[in-house]
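ESCALATION

Customer reports they have been waiting on this structure for their group meeting. Please prioritize. Original submission:
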Amino acid sequence: MYDVIILTDERYVNPKERSEYIDNVMREDWLVVEALQNLGLKAKKVAWSDTTFDWTQTKIALFRTTWDYAEKFTAFSDWLMEVSMKTKLINDYETIIWNLDKHYLLDLKEQGINVVETYFIEPGDKRTLLELHSELGWEKTVLKPTISAAAKDTFKLNLESLSDYEDRYTYLVKDESMMLQPFQEDVIKRGELSLMMIGDEYTHAVLKKAKLGDFRVQDDFGGTVQDYQPTKKEIDLAVAAVRACEGKPLYARVDIVNDNNGNPAISELELVEPEMWFRKNEKAAGMLADAINELL
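Update from on-call: job pushed to the front of the queue and completed.
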């Protein structure tokens, strides 16, 4: 019987090929395993898709690097429901389901949290991108599905390029919700902040910057990461966002940009499998382990 299983995807169990990126993933996971073991807890990594593991044999399943879920979403959803009845999930099932779909930005906005302005387009909508941009009065935008990861099907648009994306957009919106946001210029000028939270306590932050000529800050697309000391206003926004969640997540990553009005705004609240950059603050992994230990 295990106390905690750290959930990953099959690429990061015993990778045969190594790179700086994979080494960082492995180190991040190990920092959490080690912190749990230092408390005397029995813990190890298992891929969520491992059909040989008996999920009743762990008290807690902790989501860490399950980054293939978006491309296997149906299988992941089925597994998620099944495993939620066999063990305790962190974050919990209801929180994960809520956070998987970026309609959650509407819930945060209703709680008084400043979020990046967003227009949601539901499946079957027949309007073209040109019609939507004309209605909204937006010239430069970002289009993406409401359920996605690692910038999958995420496009930066302008009025001149809309025709290049109409076919792809029409295909996507037939079956899934999409979201349109005014492009936030701060993403290019400064980057996107990520504030790491254990409970509602801020631990550390990084600034993610896109490579020259791109707008996607993820390291998958050549983005870079550097240490960052957030302002009190940015920390207060992150704390407020976590406190606005009904499920009271045990850990979170809060992504913030300065919106086009110059105010800090939530671009994403990641509660499912957030990259937490524990290598930037190893004490945060210990704080997470302590919080888990209190639940056992």
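Sent to customer with the following note: The chain has a mean pLDDT of 93.
Escalation resolved.
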